[in-house]
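thread: overnight batch results

M.L. [08:02]
morning all. the overnight job finished for the chain we discussed friday. pasting input first so we're all looking at the same thing
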Amino acid sequence: MIGTIFEQGQGLGNQLWVYCVGKAIAEHYKMEHVVFDLENFKGHHFLDLDISNSQSSTSLNSNFESDDWCVLNEECFWDEELKYFSTDYDVRVDNIVENTIIRGNFQSEQYFYGRPERIRAYIALKEEYVAKKLVDDDVCVIYIRGGEYKRHKNLILPDTYWTNAISNMRNRYGVSKFIGISDDDSYFKRVLPDIEILPGSEEQDFAALYQSKYAIIANSSWGYFPTKLAPGTKNVIAPQQWARFDNKFDRWASPCNLYPDWIWQDSMGNLKSYEDCLDSKVKTTKYYNKNFNVKTSIKAVDKNLRAYIPAPIRAFIKLILSILFPKKLG
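M.L. [08:03]
and the structure it wrote out:
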């Protein structure tokens, strides 16, 4: 059996990645797939999952291991220059053993063994959201990520990324209509004040991106699934170098997040194909494997002042500051 855990604190995008990869590994090696703590899944109300066996993690220890289960923590590289934990395809999966729980990001399409479309057998958007027309065929959906990204400034994309991408959509595809979705509407309005935002909640945003034929997306794992699940061709512009856009080292952070059927935009607004970007990705992978002899799966904890402020007070302060400074905090 291959196990997947829906952990508390995981975002929906991370949950869907580790679930789909667990399913794909199990299918590839003809093993059963087990989901732990299904109640923690954040997409219950609008997504259907193909789950035949679910269990509680109460039988596991604090490291999610037991006499029956071992854990494979995905390898990651701490890039001190980029200040980022970078991941790629973990070759240890090639020798995975029975009764292994996988933990990590697992965001490489290589885990789908040449068939990334298999995720459509694992996840389905509920019919009520498929049937409700939110986006016309000639409209481009712009997905901006704000929220906690504003606390990690290297993840935030510059305003020029969005304005350049809009120009590219107009010039390349003749698109003249745009609509926005975001986890942070106030931030979106500051970045692109002239673009209408689709009202509604996460499921509405997911459905809109699912339906769109044209999309401009942020460097967030959440955006992968609605763009990939829908049938038909999509024209997607994504940020080159992913989580460290326009970094001076030309490293792809992470190497796993380069996908063949998207178009990649650099800091000058130039569009690149997968083939154009592949050299940067390959060099990044070689650099990590050659120069890093210490790998870690445990993320460092930043012991700053906020760690000592009670959670309810932090939430209230965050709300007030996000209203006052929507482009800085959220």
